Amino acid sequence: MSPVAEKDRAVVQLLLDAGTCPRCVLRFCSVGSQLLYRHPQQELLKDLQEFLKNSQEKEGPVCLDVADPPCKRLRLEHKEEGADELNHNGALPQLPSAGDTGSTGNTGNTALDSSAGRVCNVCLGILQEFCEPDFVKKVCQKVNSADYQFSSFVFSVSLPPQLSVRERAAWLGVKQQMRNLGLPLAKDDIVQLKEAYKWIIHPQLAEELGVPADGKSLFEVSVVFAHPETDEECHFLATACPDCFKPAKNKQSVFTRMAVIKALERIKEEDFLKHFPCPPSSPKNLCDALEIQCNNGAVFVAGRYNKYSRNLPQTPWIIDGERKLESSVEELISEHLMAEFKADSFNFSSSGREDVDVRTLGNGRPFAMELVNPRRIRFSAEEMKRLQQAINDSSDKIQVRDLQLVTREAIGRMKEGEEEKTKTYSALIWTDKAIQREDIAFLDDIKELRLEQKTPLRVLHRRPLAVRCRLIHSMRSEYIDQHHFRLHLRTQAGTYIKEFVHGDFGRTKPNIGSLLNRTADILELDVESVDVDWPPTLAD
After folding, report:
1. DSSP conformational letter for 205
2. Mind telling me the catalytic residues?
3. Torsion, CA 516, CA 521, CA 526, CA 532, rounded to 10
4. Adjacent-strand bridge partners of 153
5. DSSP 244-298
6. What is the CATH number of domain 423-530?
7. pLDDT (tens digit, 9 = 90+) per residue, 446-505?
8. Which fold has domain 298-418?
9. What distances in angstroms separate CA 240 from CA 168, 270, 280, one per listed residue?
10. Domain map of the chain by residue range?
11. Ordered strands of the 219-226 beta sheet
12. Global pTM?
């Protein structure tokens, strides 16, 4: 059974003579059978050759010689669509006559001879050599050597942008010749190159790797193709459609695939034909597989941390390129997670943050860590407990609890708590004037005290100047001596506690100093609880 329909006979003949590989011929004929594309290319070429031979025996040869004057119908078409009949030199394209070598008017053997061993003029060899078992094994060797954990994979491919130009040129060449012959051409849609390539490569990769292909898999195997020989074939589009090609961050060239596609949608057919040969010529060289890469989707780990040191920042403290302190909460935790998950990098986030000299006590502060491109992704609950213990054993400055794997979506619950939840603090306060118990007793009766806080001077270099309204929900004082007392506060998240105590030169109103009518300062501050019910508490 022929892989293509009889109506496509002329298209098959034209493409094979132009140097198009059999799989691209199937694409241009809109053949949607995945199994057909997986047949060996020599077998497909033989089938197409047989199809042409049988068709010619039944119907007679397809005459592609347009040297004689065209019929009246074609004259009308030329008059109406003359621009479509121009090649890149402005002349009517012609294939060799029936008596010439390589004619498409003979039995079709030249189609076999001309296509065999040539680099496809459309796919530049991607549907030829790069579908063979040797290349598949090369990809799988790269994957296996990277030592990833995965139970399925998704395959992606990056194609040279000039392939879109060549595809358009091949199709316009077919359209021209079909019109010259007075033959109908049903539609312009073809099977996309990426889709056809994945039809061929997916089952081979799945068999070699021993896991299924899955479009939703978090493990990606990607191949980046390039073809230096034809790199400049897109450049004429920049003159025709300059608005489509603008410099972008992280892009080495303005000729990206999307920019080229956008330009091809805008450029007029007659302008394209003036600048590019239709059909395109066959290149000398195959594409290069520049990169074979693997990437695992990020894994998210959450927990709560306690910080017991008054000399430990939450994140690395670096000013003007100089490191101020040797470690941080982030680094003490990430060191172990990075090693166990074998990740490339990480992103640390938490429900608020404490100053370097502030301890975090109680049930700790919720945190999450995104581990980017991890090699290992599967951990049992017992393994997570051992990992948590390893972190806790490594330092007396922090402790971690409730360490667990979470989803990306779940992290949103932690971030909500930064502004919406309450926090409890304990502050050791000094006053310049002597105080008695009764001097501070009234603080216990104050409820829902509204503050106006200008951005503190100490954070003005990294926060915009603004006045923020915050609430002190309740306070409880503990008298120590004539110049010291401890104040327990339950506040709205985002309240600057230090500034509430000393007033920040009048930038926070009211403040403890103004309430007591004396100078007050804060000596120590502890976070006693962060009232965010995430992540879930785990059994010890």
Report:
1. H
2. 355
3. 60
4. 213
5. G----TT-S-S--HHHHHHHHHHS-HHHHHHHS-SSPPPPSS--EEEEEEEEEPP
6. 3.30.70.3190
7. 999 999 999 999 999 889 999 999 999 999 999 999 999 999 999 998 999 999 999 999
8. Alpha-Beta Plaits (3.30.70)
9. 15, 12, 19
10. 121-233+276-295, 298-418, 423-530
11. 154-158, 219-226, 288-296
12. 0.80
